[in-house]
Amino acid sequence: MTAELIELEAPPDGWTTDDLDALPESHQRHELIDGALVVSPSPTNMHQTIAARLVVALEESCPPEYDVTQAVEIRISKRRSFIPDVLVTTAEAAARQPSKFAPHEVVIAVEVVSPTSVTIDQVTKSALYAQAGIPYYWLVDTLRGIAVHAYRLDARQGIYRPAGHFTERLKLSEPWDIDIPLSRITPRHYRPAAE
After folding, report:
1. Phi and psi of 124, rounded to 5°?
2. How confident is the model at residue 109 (pLDDT cuts 50, 70, 90)?
3. Helices in 14-90 by DSSP H: which ranges?
4. What is the pLDDT of residues 117-159, one digit of tens each?
5. Is 116 inside any structural domain?
6. Which of 25, 62, 80, 158 has the most C-beta neighbours closer than 10 Å?
7. 66 with 176: CB under 8 angstroms?
8. Range of the domain at 131
9. Percent of the chain having pLDDT more than 90?
10. Within a domain: residue 104?
11. In this structure, is residue 47 part of a structural domain?
12. Is the dihedral of CA 69, 150, 172, 75 positive or negative?
């Protein structure tokens, strides 16, 4: 089976979430940054394994007021839309079984950093998730060994502040008591990227 190449022509005023909704189904991830369409390749097996294992580990201790899922869109505005690798939402929002969440329904957004997403995950998404008011942001670094960088929103300043850097165990007391050995989310055949 061959893949069909679809050429996307940008609307004159940039892309909107209405344009995203009109796109054909795809294995690629389509996100918006101020009307610019960002198309990411399909995630690797390693990337998906880390995200899946993190979902399972979080789900085990998740209190009833929250829900853990993965790769569900957050519609920040008409011209901003992201699909985090893992997210924790309010249970009330999850009960609607939405295909998209509003930022106020998201408690934690998690991005698994790949070689093609370093700047977007570490700089761009961090700033825009903070502006949207998402209380916690985690980066799972896969490039130099599995590590989790956790951030908590400083609502007054509208930026994230470090809440912890974890290389052995992800251990936090907010938004609930979380204690996950990072060996649980590390794929069997994981190798750090070459420098």
Report:
1. -65, -55
2. very high
3. 17-22, 45-61
4. 888 889 999 999 999 999 999 999 998 889 999 999 999 999 9
5. yes
6. 80
7. yes
8. 43-184
9. 70
10. yes
11. yes
12. negative
